[in-house]
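Following up on my earlier thread - several people asked me to post the actual chain instead of describing it. Fair enough. Here it is, all 296 residues.
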Amino acid sequence: MKLPEIKTGSAAALELGAEEVRRYYDDNTRLFLSLGQGSEGTIRRAVWGPGVSSRQQAMRYVDSLIVERLRGLDSGNGLPLRVADLGCGVCASLCFIAQQLPVAGTGVTISSAQVELARQRIAGLGLSSQVRCVQGDFCNLPAGLGPIDLAFGIESFIHAPDGAAFFQQAARLIRPGGLLMVCDDLLAPAAARQHPDAERWVQRFRDGWKGFNVISEQDAHQLARQAGFEPVETLDLTPYLEIRRPRDYAMGALMRCLGWLPISGSYWSMLYGGHALQLALKRGWIQHLVVIWRRS
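Reply from S.P.:
Thanks for posting it. Predicted structure:
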């Protein structure tokens, strides 16, 4: 299940990585939606943060953080704030945000299957005047999407074949003074990953979840600064994840029994990587963070 070797920065590497991710989501999005942690059309995980009292709120916790940041922004021209979701899935987050605030939202996904589902969702909610979904690679964005007041990526950053390209494209997109928010699984500091098994389990997560860009917060800050961003805030959401559910223990048992077998298929790959992620989160080798930068 090893991912193909990626040579960071080359056009061929970007195309290869993008094609891996496209196939992954084209093949599995409907399954992810039906078997995920919530029923709100989101693929990401529930976050039981402060003040959350229901699963619906937990599934919308990160979206609500984005709404809070948007309330503190000014478009500068009296028009609705311009928002972009980089790796938008089926545009569930943008639709939620548009129901809370007057925004002009653009979702970008590499998956044609997700574009189809997103457009159905947007039309069904009557949000076609506020939200649109386009197919594209956030490491090589289509022209004409900016300028944006706030761009975000929820559990999509790790799929970037080139982290530097992600920030460079975000810098093209976001206006000076605008915000970039990333919510994803980042490596804990090196001192927390000294256990001899840490790298093996982190690599299993990378392989299973197409995690070309599983890097540390420190490395992300370095890449962001090179592209013209300055750090604003980091929130650690790890304590609020569901990582000890009965189904997680059952999955762990399944992986111990069958994980060594050479079984192929992208959904099996997701289970394989998800089990590794759960273990790495519990042992403190990976952190689930929200990191916010401002375009300088």
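Residues 11-185+211-243+286-295 form a domain with the Rossmann fold fold (CATH 3.40.50.150). That should answer part of your original question.
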